[in-house]
Amino acid sequence: MNDKHLNELFEFLSIPSISAQSEYRKDIKQACLWLEKKLKKIGFETDIIKTKGQPLIYAERFVNKKFPTVLVYGHYDVQSPDPLEEWFSDPFKPEIRGGNIYARGASDNKGQLFTWIAAAEDLGKKCELNLKFIIEGEEEIGSENFDDFVNDNKSLLSADICVISDSHAISPTQPLISYGLRGIAYFEIKIETMPKDVHSGIYGGNVANPAIILSQIISKMKSEDEKINIEGFYRNVRKLTKQERSLLSKLPFGEKEILEETGAINVLGESGFSVHERAGARPTLDVNGVWAGYTLEGQKTIIPGVAHAKISMRLVPNQDPYEIEKIFKKFVSDNTPVYAKSEVKTLSLNKPVIMDIKNPYFKKAEKALIKVFGSRPIYELSGGTIGAASAIKNILRIDSILMGYGLPDDGIHSPNEKISLEMFEKGINANKIFLFG
Amino acid sequence: MNDKHLNELFEFLSIPSISAQSEYRKDIKQACLWLEKKLKKIGFETDIIKTKGQPLIYAERFVNKKFPTVLVYGHYDVQSPDPLEEWFSDPFKPEIRGGNIYARGASDNKGQLFTWIAAAEDLGKKCELNLKFIIEGEEEIGSENFDDFVNDNKSLLSADICVISDSHAISPTQPLISYGLRGIAYFEIKIETMPKDVHSGIYGGNVANPAIILSQIISKMKSEDEKINIEGFYRNVRKLTKQERSLLSKLPFGEKEILEETGAINVLGESGFSVHERAGARPTLDVNGVWAGYTLEGQKTIIPGVAHAKISMRLVPNQDPYEIEKIFKKFVSDNTPVYAKSEVKTLSLNKPVIMDIKNPYFKKAEKALIKVFGSRPIYELSGGTIGAASAIKNILRIDSILMGYGLPDDGIHSPNEKISLEMFEKGINANKIFLFG
């Protein structure tokens, strides 16, 4: 392992570039400046591009105008590390334990992104592809401004193929290429019955409790068999072909792996579909957060005035997030009783996407992965969402190859996120082969 | 108004003696020391009594061993002031605006308790009653240690009558005596499906969401007509007599006042009962707080591992909180699906209580209130809970007269709690008449 790469990754990981919370604005800026400096140093021309939200970094290095161009997408923003008390080390002081680097963003996405920067540095001009980087700072908050940027900069981003390492392999000897990504529709609901919290003794029995109303609304969203009850929700869901179902059924993971990775008591999912189908080919609905009233130590005898929930749906082709937004808002409004008012705020809407795996660069990626990991990559439909992959396909018509260098137990979005040192190194090597042959 | 009393009340209100949160332990101590010093200065012998939780203050002043003795109960602890951002002034920097003192505890209970301390000071030895104070520091967290203390100190607390000012009048010209108080059973529920939060893209569709399960359980607790569905919940509820129903129906408040005081969109309550019956004679169930997953700004795409709720029930005679604890725990356990585990922690259990209003001291209280407020007090069943009143009645067999000097819009347990200067002064004067005649 090249110590220089590792030291630099540590520097990058130490910047708490959390995009969801505005108090980290200066760290976002620092992450941009860090990337710009790094990319300049290894021969790229760079540009920090302002958006309505967090800035983007664009960088390019042309070896030969006649060579094809590969666009590398990544993101420098990270998820909030809370609950902090569950981390064994500071999320922004990277630490190596048992062959893994622990830090927020280690796997998602700083570590994986850095495999491409390191490969570009190692190769220098010995590439047989021209390189463009587009690195955003809003992936974890729905890539809100990415579509507009792509629409306005089609020629800047022109490329023959896009590569994204923001997913995972099955194991250090079994690579994985995702050929589809779910979309997302993320909302925040507010239920209000009163403008303030009131005494539960004096008013208990005579006023409506927004936390109970919110619970009732949430309960109505799903049946016990995990079917989503929002009218029209499944209308445009693409049916899997027999061939696809058979292909997915061969993926070497199942209930056992899910239980091991999550520690869940049981697997629970939509009836009539396999674990693999539910993970990538079926849409979902989850409560990501909920809060109302008194949530600290001990007791407080109040009836809250308002209750909130963050609720998101993972969407699959050909669901349209804008259509989902409409029916979700209608559902909440229809289920709000007369003694309450509800508000639904949209936090993000991202389209699902499927790549054309007949694109010849997939073969090139396969070759590189086989050489480094020792086996042919498996193809899967990913359950996650990368808004940028959808924009790059739908607006620029460029396919993305999702070469994942994380592992399933990396704990991305969870406490104690890590990346395996072995995967980090293999990632750099595979990228070098992909870029140089 | 006596400026000295006001200045001293301000001092007392400035101490953030929040019992629910352990970080305020030193403020609890300060409130005790403040009370002890004050009561000593006006001729009382005092004792700070340790408990397993917050200490109690006992004080006595004997004028004449042959005189009857009145026990004054109050509490020095206050509710948490959050949400802080909704206060117009610092909850622990009392401020007078528009004839009211604004501070956490202004009405509940420091201000009302202080009317008795001020009356005792003004009268000095000119009392025709011996005086005992018992002031606790755990009223807002369920008076957990009060029953044990009373059981162990029956002779210390012996008295002919108890007075408690920890409720409210209808208006500054219409006093109110509560002759009954609801009990309470307060619980915290934890639903867990996984030991950690996980990525909603990778695992969404295959693992159970504890926030949804919690919503389902809460939804099942009440029907749409506000009936509580916990089996056996209504079993021991005392039926109101025709006479009582008719008496309660004469109380000069109703839906209009509830809407004005709370700002609620609508009144909502158990079908088949009047506003007054629901407020004091019928049990309730409320969610006091709920939390799970990500609750900060923006979005985080996780499935939480655990979800929590604080849920309390106000109980009426002859419901037994220990019986309610049993059936509530059974309800939660019966409704927890196999893919989750649930835990119910009991935060407090207090019995409901009814006083014998034929006790002659009620007439004495009536006379004092009529003289100061100008009209005969109305009798009501209060919706609130004062654990101590129940212990004093059930263990010592002493009736309590609940002479309320708050007003319905005091906002106790809410932001911007206040006490009216007029009520504070009238309270002191009525107490002086009660104590001296």
Helix and strand layout, with pairings?
The structure is a homodimer of 437-residue chains.
Chain A: H1 3-13, H2 25-41, E1 45-49, E2 56-61, E3 69-75, E4 95-97, E5 100-102, H3 110-123, E6 130-136, H4 146-152, E7 161-164, E8 176-181, E9 183-192, E10 198-199, H5 210-221, H6 242-248, H7 255-262, H8 275-280, E11 284-293, E12 302-303, E13 306-315, H9 321-334, E14 341-350, E15 353-354, H10 361-373, E16 378-382, H11 387-394, E17 400-403, E18 418-420, H12 421-436
Parallel strand pairs in A: 3-6, 3-7, 7-17, 8-16
Antiparallel strand pairs in A: 1-2, 2-6, 4-5, 5-18, 8-15, 8-17, 9-13, 9-14, 10-12, 11-13
Helix pairs in contact in A: 1-3, 3-12, 10-12
Give a verbal description of the structure:
- 2 copies of one chain form a homodimer.
- The first copy, chain A, has 437 residues and is α+β, with helices and mostly antiparallel strands.
- Chain A folds into 2 domains: 3-182 and 352-436, Zn peptidases (Aminopeptidase), CATH 3.40.630; 183-237 and 283-349, 2-Layer Sandwich (Alpha-Beta Plaits).
- In chain A, 30% of the residues lie in helices and 23% in strands.
- Chain A has 12 helices and 18 strands.
- Chain A has helices at residues 3-13, 25-41, 110-123, 146-152, 210-221, 242-248, 255-262, 275-280, 321-334, 361-373, 387-394, 421-436; strands at 45-49, 56-61, 69-75, 95-97, 100-102, 130-136, 161-164, 176-181, 183-192, 198-199, 284-293, 302-303, 306-315, 341-350, 353-354, 378-382, 400-403, 418-420.
- In chain A, the strands form 4 sheets. In chain A, strands 1, 2, 3, 6, 7, 8, 15, 16 and 17 form a 9-stranded mixed sheet that branches.
- In chain A, helix 1 packs antiparallel against helix 3, helix 3 crosses helix 12 and helix 10 (361-373) packs across helix 12.
- The radius of gyration of chain A is 23 Å and the shape is globular.
- Chain A starts with a helix and ends with a helix.
- The model of chain A has no long low-confidence stretch (mean pLDDT 95).
- The interface between A and B is large, with 101 and 100 residues.
